[in-house]
Design brief:
single chain, mainly alpha, two-stranded antiparallel sheet, 50% helix
């Protein structure tokens, strides 16, 4: 009974309405493993997973091909090696279909205002 009450009292987390981001966060992928682990095992299990990078999503296997570490002793070592390869910076977003429709409607409204002026 107390657990049910605690869940009802907890605030709901609302998702933002901003643009979508393609690819999985590196931390989420890293959380799927028990450390230490071989690079080849990571590629076997999650190589097809696209991770977020400043240049857009990239398959994890492609990123790890450029990393010279054959065995990762810890999650931190893995994340540091991957980040050294992909770089650091903002991740590009993808406009949602709803955003495209709103942008088109806004553009039509501004065209109408220009025509009246």
């Amino acid at each position: 009974m107390a657990d049910d009450e605690a869940e009802e009292d907890a605030p709901a987390v609302e998702l933002g309405s901003g643009p979508a981001v393609e690819g999985a966060p590196l931390a989420r992928v890293a959380a799927r493993f028990t450390w230490g682990i071989q690079r080849s095992e990571i590629v076997r299990r999650e190589g097809d997973t696209e991770i977020r990078t400043p240049d857009g999503p990239r398959p994890l296997a492609d990123v790890l091909d450029a990393v010279d570490v054959p065995y990762f002793e810890s999650r931190r070592e893995f994340e540091d090696a991957v980040r050294a390869e992909i770089g650091d910076g903002p991740v590009p977003t993808v406009p949602r279909e709803d955003d495209d429709a709103e942008d088109a409607a806004d553009a039509d409204d501004s065209d109408d205002a220009d025509a009246e002026a």
